[in-house]
Design goal:
The protein is elongated. 57% of the residues lie in helices and 15% in strands. α2 packs across α6 and α8 crosses α10. It is α+β, with helices and mostly antiparallel strands. It is built from twelve helices and seven strands.
Length: 265
């Protein structure tokens, strides 16, 4: 009894600070998330096997069983690599669980405009690789309802997959423009006014003239993927930015759709 009391007295006399409490809470949270992620999976039985193996090694060392302790020590040396291989699905689940926490989502959440830019850039990258022509118009301050009414109404959530499928050659919506309002594709197969600029090179076809035409009449941003050349261009404010690679397209769209709105605000 006196030994227990002495141990309790030493524990009470420990200088535990705020940092120690935070350290303990973080470790507890990590173990809790890990256990929740593997609960109900085959990883639980594997974890028990690892615990038994580790306990056996500790017992072998305590009893001075040299051969058994040596074998288990070699096995435990490779245990981290075994855990990575056996628990790769569970590790992905743990990381996904951490990523879905409310605090992480708050720090890493993208604005609707950033999501829009990502989807458009990904779609253009695929369309360029497949040599599929496309014309994507993004509404800014001025409404594009007049032009959207000339096409097929969609009112669908903007996504990379939908944009790519709209511009598959031979489909009814392939030749027109897709008009984006907010984070939705309001219509596809839309007709746009063609620019009558005489200084526009003859190598640019009707898609480029349509993109430039809508950029001359409104403040919209139009992205063009050339079917013949596999190149990307952007029309805005009556100007045509040509021969853009995917990285340049992303930077330009961020400047026009994201930074431009912040400056205006």
């Amino acid at each position: 009894m006196s030994t227990v009391l002495a141990a309790l007295r030493q524990l009470i006399q420990l200088n535990v600070g705020v940092r120690d409490v935070v350290d303990i809470l973080v470790v507890t949270a990590v173990f809790y998330v890990a256990l929740v992620a593997v609960r109900g999976t085959r990883a639980v039985s594997m974890l028990w096997g690892i615990v038994v193996l580790t306990g056996t090694y500790a017992l072998a060392v305590a009893l001075d069983l040299i051969t058994l302790a040596t074998v288990l020590r070699e096995v435990l040396f490779y245990l981290p690599f075994v855990i990575i291989v056996l628990f790769q699905h569970e590790i992905r689940r743990i990381l996904a669980t951490v990523g879905r926490t409310r605090l992480i989502r708050w720090f890493s959440s993208l604005s609707p405009r950033q999501v829009l830019i990502n989807e458009i850039v990904l779609a253009c990258d695929t369309l360029v690789a497949r040599r599929h022509g496309a014309l994507i118009v993004v509404e800014r301050g001025e409404g594009l309802r007049t032009y959207a009414d000339t096409g097929i109404p969609l009112d669908a959530q903007l996504s990379y997959d939908l944009l790519v499928n709209i511009f598959v050659p031979g489909t009814p919506l392939h030749d027109g423009a897709a008009i984006i309002q907010g984070n939705r594709i309001v219509a596809a197969g839309c007709f746009l006014p063609l620019s009558t600029r005489a200084d526009l090179s003859t190598e640019y076809g009707s898609r480029h003239r349509a993109a430039l035409g809508i950029a001359e009449e409104t403040d919209a941003v139009a992205v063009v993927v050339s079917e013949e050349r596999g190149a990307v261009a952007v029309a805005e404010n009556g100007q045509l930015h040509t021969n853009l690679d995917i990285q340049a397209l992303r930077y330009l769209l961020m400047e026009l759709l994201l930074l431009g709105e912040r400056r205006a605000a």
